[in-house]
Amino acid sequence: MLGICRGRRKFLAASLTVLFVPAITWIYLFAGSFEDGKAVSLSPLESQPHSPRYTASSQRERESLEVRMREVEEENRVLRKQLSLAQGRSPSHHRGNHSKTYSMEEGTGDSESLRAGIVAGNSSECGQQPAVEKCETIHVAIVCAGYNASRDVVTLVKSVLFHRRNPLHFHLIADAIAKQILATLFQTWMVPAVRIDFYDADELKSEVSWIPNKHYSGIYGLMKLVLTKTLPSNLERVIVLDTDITFATDIAELWAVFHKFKGQQVLGLVENQSDWYLGNLWKNHRPWPALGRGYNTGVILLLLDKLRKMKWEQMWRLTAERELMSMLSTSLADQDIFNAVIKQNPFLVYQLPCFWNVQLSDHTRSEQCYRDVSDLKVIHWNSPKKLRVKNKHVEFFRNLYLTFLEYDGNLLRRELFGCPSEADINSENLQKQLSELDEDDLCYEFRRERFTVHRTHLYFLHYEYEPASDNTDVTLVAQLSMDRLQMLEAICKHWEGPISLALYLSDAEAQQFLRYAQGSEVLMSRHNVGYHIVYKEGQFYPVNLLRNVAMKHISTPYMFLSDIDFLPMYGLYEYLRKSVIQLDLANTKKALIVPAFETLRYRLSFPKSKAELLSMLDMGTLFTFRYHVWTKGHAPTNFAKWRTATTPYRVEWEADFEPYVVVRKDCPEYDRRFVGFGWNKVAHIMELDAQEYEFTVLPNAYMIHMPHAPSFDITKFRSNKQYRICLKTLKEEFQQDMSRHYGFAALKYLTAENNS
């Protein structure tokens, strides 16, 4: 505060210097122009040598005064420059709901703001008011629909979170798909001081469906028109953003611009930077009416309270109805209608400086919006080409976008110190659970992983599947990390039914996966594969969490619990659907076992029948799974009996049994305490047995494990003694929990373990 007051005193001193120094100088010169009480003329004519009053001494004095005058004028010029800089930095105040600092930006009403700022700067207050109050909530509205838009929203939100210093309240107008994806994402992201509210976009369709729209955004591209009606009636102002926006500055700077609105200005918009509305792009090009170049609606500042009082709903509807009589449809969705309204009512708009919406479509004037990197505020990828757009500086813009695209979202879980945040039950429960752990426990990291909340992005790619109407449909469930991507195409070729996959990836790896999938004809031809990204956090591979995520998001009544390293036999999908009916899985608690085999060959001529598989088994090309390192895992399947079996047969649970099974979707989840390598499937099969599931082996089904390098987790298990000790401890605790939960019947698990 003291520093600010000193700055104010320097500012006033500079002002007084500029005002009084010229006055004193001219008084001095004026006094010096009197001789013997008479005025001496300074006109050129009277200064000539032939003047009777001209003397050598007066000439020297005159020259001396002229030199001094030039020096004073130079000093004044420097002082005026310093004063102008001080004015640019001086605080200005806007008496309203919130105080702010105006910047000297180009834009409608900026000259008035500057003058008001100078006046306020000369006030007696010593403190500079912040641009936006420290804990003031900034409201942002985004329309989002579908799988691709949900990915775009995440990048936009990352860029906002990276720069922000204020609490944020996102209002998401979303369809059912986007809501499911984003609700899970934000719930698991757990970013402090961020609130999310959803509004059903499907309920709003009737409000705008009467407007024909040729834009690729479809009906959702018109929904910004109805925000005054959709958003809460007590919400006074909101920033509206397209999903293809990237922020390069604190969004509070944009929020502060609301205080520059004057009179009836209710819309803050940047001028359109293409020639679209000039109507000269091609012959017979006829755009909607607009004021000059028109305005782009990728970034909008809406004064909702004033818009409601102006009857905005009626205003835009009447304009749209009138223009559609001749235009027949919109080409740029809501933007056409906004511009038509502004054309009739130009007083509604406050023109934002163009750096608040640098539009990177082809043939725009976006380069005029910035001279330096520091000038950039908001980048708008408003071309259908997106990152492939033509622009002289597109490489810079692309790298900025990719920075946020691949940025670790976990790093954005920053607290806003000094700002009270709403109580989050999930966060409070998590803190309570973690506080109960003993940090001195040698197995602390294992126990902590059980409670770690991993950010989860469901349906990372487009998913479209309707389960079969006969209620026999089966989804293959698996999990994987980046080093197993090569298995995806092969599995898709072997299994034509729906698949649910949980992928454990970093933000950067998720983008690598996206490029890999988009470049694969096999994967892009399949719309019944759900890819769910669980983002990396912590030092362990959360294998059972991944399985639970994949299990939870299936749409079929049954699921085949597999692993990504296995290729199912050709035709297994249809065979399992028939088996579901044959064994009455709908009305009985059964787990159907698919026998597992393995090969050590990277190139395998996959057997097309059971007979061919048995032949390869006899030749040593195939083996029963893990027969040489972990026989107990699949021994109860009874492969000897399976060789000749023609009908399903029942087997009993044994210690360490971990077959791959088909079960109803309501089966218990995997236990999250088991991470990395060891006991993750064993514990699940044990719980199925405790719940009295029957284990039935399918006689004509099989799957084959393909070879791969050892995982990092199995390497840790083999090399780290403490890892093995902790796994043993967790196993014992799990068995004790089973005994408490299932009673006397669960004692057999303890006995079986002791005997094994």
TrEMBL record:
<feature type="region of interest" description="Disordered">
    <location>
        <begin position="43"/>
        <end position="69"/>
    </location>
</feature>
<dbReference type="GO" id="GO:0015020">
    <property type="term" value="F:glucuronosyltransferase activity"/>
</dbReference>
<dbReference type="GO" id="GO:0035269">
    <property type="term" value="P:protein O-linked glycosylation via mannose"/>
</dbReference>
<keyword id="KW-0328">Glycosyltransferase</keyword>
<feature type="region of interest" description="Disordered">
    <location>
        <begin position="83"/>
        <end position="109"/>
    </location>
</feature>
<dbReference type="GO" id="GO:0000139">
    <property type="term" value="C:Golgi membrane"/>
</dbReference>
<keyword id="KW-0325">Glycoprotein</keyword>
<dbReference type="InterPro" id="IPR029044">
    <property type="entry name" value="Nucleotide-diphossugar_trans"/>
</dbReference>
<comment type="similarity">
    <text>In the C-terminal section; belongs to the glycosyltransferase 49 family.</text>
</comment>
<keyword id="KW-0472">Membrane</keyword>
<keyword id="KW-0333">Golgi apparatus</keyword>
<keyword id="KW-1133">Transmembrane helix</keyword>
<keyword id="KW-0808">Transferase</keyword>
<dbReference type="InterPro" id="IPR051292">
    <property type="entry name" value="Xyl/GlcA_transferase"/>
</dbReference>
<keyword id="KW-0812">Transmembrane</keyword>
<feature type="compositionally biased region" description="Polar residues">
    <location>
        <begin position="44"/>
        <end position="58"/>
    </location>
</feature>
<feature type="transmembrane region" description="Helical">
    <location>
        <begin position="12"/>
        <end position="31"/>
    </location>
</feature>
<comment type="pathway">
    <text>Protein modification; protein glycosylation.</text>
</comment>
<dbReference type="GO" id="GO:0042285">
    <property type="term" value="F:xylosyltransferase activity"/>
</dbReference>
<keyword id="KW-0735">Signal-anchor</keyword>
<feature type="compositionally biased region" description="Basic and acidic residues">
    <location>
        <begin position="59"/>
        <end position="69"/>
    </location>
</feature>
<dbReference type="InterPro" id="IPR002495">
    <property type="entry name" value="Glyco_trans_8"/>
</dbReference>
<protein>
    <submittedName>
        <fullName>LARGE xylosyl- and glucuronyltransferase 1</fullName>
    </submittedName>
</protein>
<comment type="similarity">
    <text>In the N-terminal section; belongs to the glycosyltransferase 8 family.</text>
</comment>
<dbReference type="Pfam" id="PF01501">
    <property type="entry name" value="Glyco_transf_8"/>
</dbReference>
<dbReference type="Pfam" id="PF13896">
    <property type="entry name" value="Glyco_transf_49"/>
</dbReference>
<keyword id="KW-0511">Multifunctional enzyme</keyword>
